[in-house]
Amino acid sequence: MFSKTCEYGLRAVLFIAQETAHGHKVSMSKVSDEINSPQAFTAKILQQLKRNNIITSVKGPYGGFTITEDKMETKLSEIVSVLDGDTIYKGCGLGLKQCDANSPCPLHYKFVDIRENLKNMLENTSITSLLNDMNLEGFILKR
Description:
This protein has seven helices and two strands; from the N terminus they run αααββαααα. A two-stranded antiparallel sheet has the order 1-2. The longest helix is centred in the N-terminal third of the chain and has 18 residues.
């Protein structure tokens, strides 16, 4: 459902949040390695997240990426919006260009509920809440 950019972006934010919670800054290459994403692609995603004030970075030998305490309350919907826009809420389940209530695809009406549930989850889930869940369970961010 998410683009590769969004998948990697969400994983990167969660990894950075996890490291920030332990008092660490992380390099772009460490993020790339931990989420199993190509470095150049990771760099572009992190740049976009930084530009939109979801993550911060410090340059230099002791630098790296972190998330400020107030940004830990960012909802996943904001991250998805930065990386993918709102197409996830409007796109066709089969990827068709012309699909709406007037000319629906075979999945259209079933997919409406799925999109609503996804939107609700993204709008009601913060980085902190997922970070808390990650600390309780053995979640992975790498394929």
